[in-house]
């Protein structure tokens, strides 16, 4: 009886370990996850971190991640006077959204907008309404093609000018609060956790920052975004992690960083290829590779990624 009990205990512990390691994140029917957003999404570090950790949790998964972020983009259709020194107005998502959805056919869309939609001006009811209308249109258009949409609140804005005449950070607070208030939607709040993380960092170092230019998060800022997304999807151990590598103490840091670098390289090839294939119209963007060439390079990197996951 003692041997049988020990046997059952061993099986139970094995199943517990397997359960704690695996974290599915998505319904089994999900095959394609599309990220939409502006320059923060295009830079993509939070997406690359998210996929790295997803792969570590689910090494056998075949879910594909697509980054179709486009710098400067809005859902509001607004553009401040003199944007890009007058070279071109801000692009609007709806010029390209239909093409992106039809070409990729995502099962889940994760969309992050807002930081550009206030066009870096004092709070305006008109601008706010345009943002709300754009988000609602995005939501409806994604659902109409049969995909699920998850909204992400905009990043924190860090005011860098001592002589600022208004507080754009408070404008973004209001945009984030509105999104969070949409109770029938799935919304991941990264805005207020970023704000809290910044406040805590400044207590230790007044010069601490998550975005040196006020807008674009540094690596720590991207990790704060990512860890709140991971927590939303059920990976509770990510909630208080200072750095992502501490989630995997049984793996060498060099192995983890190499895995991340390979996933990052794969994303950087494919994001520009997808922007090219879906015919974005924003000027001054890198020329993506033709899709067949990009996929060939991505496949070679995937072989290396799979090897590192073993």
TrEMBL record:
Molecular functions per Gene Ontology: hydrolase activity
Domain of life: Bacteria
SUPFAM superfamilies xref list: SGNH hydrolase
EC number of the protein: 3.1.-.-
Record's keyword terms, sorted: Hydrolase, Signal
Pfam families hit by this protein: Lipase_GDSL_2 (PF13472)
TM regions (residue ranges): none
Domain SGNH hydrolase-type esterase: 35-223
Signal peptide: 1-22
InterPro entries per record: Ester_Hydrolysis_Enzymes (IPR051532), SGNH_hydro (IPR013830), SGNH_hydro_sf (IPR036514)
Name this polypeptide is given: SGNH/GDSL hydrolase family protein
Annotated organism of origin: Flectobacillus rivi
The organism's taxonomic lineage, starting at the top: Bacteria, Pseudomonadati, Bacteroidota, Cytophagia, Cytophagales
């Amino acid at each position: 009886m003692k041997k049988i009990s020990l046997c059952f205990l061993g099986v139970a512990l094995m199943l517990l370990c397997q359960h704690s390691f695996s974290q599915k994140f998505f319904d089994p029917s999900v095959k394609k996850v599309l990220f939409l957003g502006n320059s923060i999404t295009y830079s993509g570090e939070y997406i690359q971190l998210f996929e790295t950790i997803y792969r570590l949790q689910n090494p056998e998964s075949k879910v594909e991640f697509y980054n179709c972020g486009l710098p400067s983009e809005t859902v509001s259709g607004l553009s401040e006077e003199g944007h890009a020194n007058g070279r071109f107005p801000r692009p609007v998502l709806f010029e390209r959204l239909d093409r992106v959805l039809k070409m990729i056919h995502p099962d889940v869309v994760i969309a992050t907008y807002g930081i550009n939609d206030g066009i870096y001006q004092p709070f305006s009811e008109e601008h706010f309404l345009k943002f709300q209308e754009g988000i609602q249109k995005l939501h409806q258009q994604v659902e109409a093609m049969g995909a699920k949409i998850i909204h992400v609140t905009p990043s924190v804005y860090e005011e860098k000018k001592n002589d600022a005449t208004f507080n754009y950070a408070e404008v973004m607070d209001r945009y984030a609060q509105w999104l969070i208030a949409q109770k029938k939607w799935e919304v991941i709040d990264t805005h207020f956790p970023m704000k809290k993380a910044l406040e805590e960092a400044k207590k230790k170092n007044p010069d601490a920052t998550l975005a040196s230019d006020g807008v674009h998060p540094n690596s720590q800022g991207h990790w704060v975004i990512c860890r709140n997304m991971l927590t939303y999807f059920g990976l509770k151990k990510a909630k208080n992690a200072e750095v992502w590598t501490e989630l995997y103490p049984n793996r060498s840091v060099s192995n983890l960083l190499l895995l991340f670098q390979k996933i990052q390289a794969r994303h950087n090839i494919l994001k520009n290829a997808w922007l090219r294939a879906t015919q974005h119209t924003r000027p001054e963007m890198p020329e993506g590779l033709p899709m067949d060439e990009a996929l060939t390079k991505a496949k070679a990197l995937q072989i290396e990624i799979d090897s590192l996951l073993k």
